[in-house]
Amino acid sequence: DAGVTQSPTHLIKTRGQQVTLRCSPKSGHDTVSWYQQALGQGPQFIFQYYEEEERQRGNFPDRFSGHQFPNYSSELNVNALLLGDSALYLCASSPPNGLYTEAFFGQGTRLTVV
Amino acid sequence: AQKVTQAQTEISVVEKEDVTLDCGYETRDTTYYLFWYKQPPSGELVFLIRRNSFDEQNEISGRYSWNFQKSTSSFNFTITASQVVDSAVYFCALGAGPASKLTFGTGTRLQVTL
């Protein structure tokens, strides 16, 4: 049973560019959340997708957007990249009716903006 | 708003020593969940435990134990007879409100040496 998988593992982009990160949830999970983890910090919640809609959003600008597909996989898009967007981006999936269950995390995508 | 505090930035111990990682939290929700995650250098967050706000029983799992005290808003984690493989960053997290968004602390880096 594959866990949460994210691609790519590493990515280098230039300021002003756009980037798309991808996430496949654990089998049987229907909810996907995205987190940004800056170096030396804890993960910060970006947003969550359920039934192909954004259900909740953290304190991130509109440059951060997402999508969920019918197979529950998800994408995180960041436009007009800034140096400060350099971070580890983590995807987490949760099972149905999992309001308070644990989230299972992927290995993350390390984004470097130069 | 929820808040998680991990005051210990870094802890170094010698193998076989016991070590306790502290976690404090703030929330106005009466129903909430507390989590501990381990983050090895690979980056993936590994789930260790979940505890709900109605269950204050301490829990032991092998060399790991958790002490949840609602009266002091703390959820501390103890590793008994630490091993080099325990070296990692440990995060405490709080899940409250809808959609299981998690609020993380800043993490405690544990270094176990021979």
Provide a descriptive summary of the structure in words.
The complex is a heterodimer of chains A (114) and B (114). Chain A has no helices and eleven strands. Chain A is mainly beta and 114 residues long. In chain A, strands 2, 4, 5, 6, 9, 10 and 11 form a seven-stranded mixed β-sheet that branches. Chain A has a four-stranded antiparallel β-sheet with strand order 1-3-8-7, with no helix packed on it. The mean pLDDT of chain A is 93. Helices cover 0% and strands 54% of the residues of chain B. Chain B has no helices and twelve strands. In chain B, strands 2, 5, 6, 10, 11 and 12 form a six-stranded mixed β-sheet that branches. Chain B has a four-stranded antiparallel β-sheet with strand order 3-9-8-7, with no helix packed on it. In chain B, strands 1-4 form a two-stranded antiparallel sheet. Chain B is globular and about 45 Å long. The A-B interface holds A 31, 33, 35, 40-45, 48, 50, 55-56, 58, 88, 90, 92, 94, 98-108, 110 and B 4, 6, 31-33, 35, 37, 42-47, 50, 52, 91, 93, 95, 98-107.
Uncertain runs of chain B are: none
**Approximate helicity band of chain B:** under 10%
Shape of chain B: globular
The end-to-end span of chain A amounts to 37 Å
Number of strands of chain A: 11
- State the helical fraction of chain A: under 10%
Give the helix/strand class of chain A.
mainly beta
Low-confidence stretches of chain A: none
Shape of chain A: globular
Oligomeric state of shown chains: heterodimer
Q: Which pair has the most extensive contact?
A: A-B, 30 and 28 residues
CA radius of gyration of chain B? 14 Å
Mean pLDDT of chain A: 93
Strand segment tally of chain B: 12
N-to-C span of chain B: 41 Å
Strand content of chain B: over 45%
Q: What's the helix count of chain A? A: 0
> Strand-and-helix sequence of chain A, N→C?
EEEEEEEEEEE
